[in-house]
Structure formats: C-alpha cells, structure tokens
Task: structure prediction
Amino acid sequence: MVNIFILGPAGSGKTTLTEKFGKYLEEQGFSVGYINLDAAVEKLPYCPNFDIRNYYTVDDVMRKFNIGPNTALIRSVELLLNYKDEIKKIANELSLDKDYIIIDTPGQLELVVFHSCGIEVLKIFEGKSCTVFLIPADLLRSIRDFAFLKLLALAIKYRIDMPIITVISKADMLSCETFQEILRRKEDLLIEGVQADLTLELWNIIDKLEKKQRIIRVSSITGEGLEDLHTIIHEVFCTCGDLT
Result:
C-alpha cells in the first residue's frame, strides 16, 4: 500500500487530479482509498473514506473563533491534529485492503509545508509514502516561472523529507511544443547581465538534484500522463530507483 499526497499551489488541480487519478487506478484493477484534508473545499468529485469537513469547515472555524478567512485557513490546518487519531484509524483500516491511499491536501500549499502542524499531519500516515507536486501549466509563461516552481519543489522535498514527484498539471492548457520552447529559453537567461551568475547557479542546483526525474505532463481533462504518473510512482519504490 502506498500513500500518495497531492500537493501544489492553489488552483493547481489537486482535487480534480485526486479524482481522475484514483479512477484511473481503479480501472487498472487497483483498490483506492480517498482522504480529504481540505476543510475549505465546497464540493468533491470523489467519495472520500475520510472527510475532515464531517468534523468542521473553514466557515465553522470563522464563526467559532470570530476570525477572518485567512486566519481561519491556518487554524483549520492546526485543528487537523485534534483529529489525528481518527485520521490514523481510517488510514490504517484502508491500508488493510487498499493498494493506494490518495490524500487530497488543503488548497493553499503554504498551509501544509510552511507550518509545523502541516508537517505533523503528513506524519500521521504510516508505510510507504510519496508526494505528487503539481506545477500548473497556466502559471508557466517563461523559463523563470519553471525554474522558480522547480526550486519550490526541491524546497518542499527538503522540508517534508519524502520522495517527491514533480508533474505539470493542466497539461491541456500548454502544448508540448510551447513547453519545449519555454525550456529552450534557458540559454537566454544566462546572458542577462547581473542575474546571469545567480541564474546559472540555480539551474546547476536543479540539474544536479532533479536530473534523475523525467518531466511528466498530466491532464485531468484528457487523461494525458496518468499512466506515466502511475509508472513513476512505482519506480520511486523500485530497487533500481531510475526515474529517468
């Protein structure tokens, strides 16, 4: 059994991918469990085995503590630890007969990785775990965008100490040709004056630490990349460890 945490910036398609990837796995004959930890989501396209909204929502938190929406979002993640026994119980029960558990995380990335309580929530889940980090295609307009989000993925890997698979979500919004053109602009950045040295060093870090992982494009609309995502999740735990 493998725990799959879906992480990414707000609007990157975490909930939709949770549903589409879970459905894909089920169609391949695997059994899948679903856990929703986002107290702010209004509707879910999948039926969760555990839904934190059965205990509280962000609106509940706002009313109870008389706070605004931003503070309520932070408090909603802190409150997750109050239900860690319930979460762990469901996760352990699912691990008995499920091949995968997909965990849909709170919509705002910083709530999970910037706050210590978010890291503690991830530790509730036992056994083999990996993270799928989404880089939404609609945020990619230049090579700088791509470099920044790749560096963010590396920082998250350091922060949560867990295998992380970086994928481009919403791939239907960015053609393969356009993406390749963005990547080709990498050389242009190396001649931009005072930023050249910094840019070169950043790309050296990315190339060194992520050279073993191929770039996967995933679309929940067309189904592109779901098979590749499944394959690379398997390879994360393969003894060969080859993600190229």
